[in-house]
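User: Here's a structure from my thesis project, written as C-alpha cells. My advisor, Dr. K., wants to see whether a designed sequence matches the one we expressed. Can you design one independently, without my sequence as a hint?
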C-alpha cells in the first residue's frame, strides 16, 4: 500500500464511447462503464464496483498482513461487499433528497484454524485498513477545471 505522504496519481479518460472510461494507474489499465440499463455498454465495472473493490482488496491485504505478522494459519480470505442507499431511520428534518444514506455491508470469510478470539481480532483489524479509514473519515477534495 502507498505511503501516507505519497501522492497517488490516477488518470481517467472518457472519450466518445458513451460511458466507457479508461482508468490508468501507472502501467495498469482498467475499464469502467455503466450497465446497459443506465445507457452504457457494460464493458467494465461501474464506479461503485471499483469503490467496493478498493475497500475489499485493502481489507483482505490488511488482514493477510496482520495474520502473517501474528503467524496465524490463515489460508484464504474472502471479502463480500454490498453498496446501497437506505432510508435514514432517525432523520427529523430530512427532505426527499436527504432522507437516504449510503451504506456498505462488508462480510469477511476467513479460512484457517483460528479461535473465535482471533476471528474477532481480524474483524476489528478490518476496520483499520487505509481505505476503510478514508471512507469513514473527513475527506477534503480540491477540484479544478481547464479547457483545451
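Assistant: Designed independently from the structure alone:
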Amino acid at each position: 500500500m502507498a505511503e501516507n505522504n505519497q501522492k497517488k496519481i490516477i488518470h481517467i479518460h472518457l472519450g466518445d464511447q458513451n460511458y466507457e472510461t479508461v482508468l490508468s494507474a501507472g502501467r495498469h489499465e482498467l475499464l469502467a462503464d455503466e450497465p446497459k440499463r443506465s445507457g452504457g455498454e457494460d464493458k467494465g465495472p461501474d464506479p461503485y464496483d471499483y469503490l467496493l473493490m478498493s475497500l475489499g482488496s485493502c481489507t483482505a491485504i490488511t488482514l493477510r498482513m496482520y495474520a502473517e505478522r501474528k503467524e496465524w494459519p490463515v489460508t484464504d480470505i474472502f471479502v463480500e461487499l454490498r453498496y446501497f442507499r437506505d432510508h435514514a431511520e432517525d432523520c427529523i428534518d430530512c427532505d426527499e433528497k436527504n432522507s437516504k444514506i449510503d451504506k456498505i455491508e462488508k462480510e469477511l470469510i476467513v479460512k484457517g484454524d483460528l479461535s473465535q478470539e482471533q476471528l474477532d481480532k481480524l474483524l476489528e483489524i478490518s476496520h483499520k485498513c487505509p481505505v476503510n479509514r478514508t471512507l469513514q473519515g473527513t475527506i477534503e477534495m480540491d477540484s479544478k477545471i481547464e479547457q483545451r
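When you compare it with your expressed construct, this may help: Helices lie at 47-70, 116-126, 130-136.
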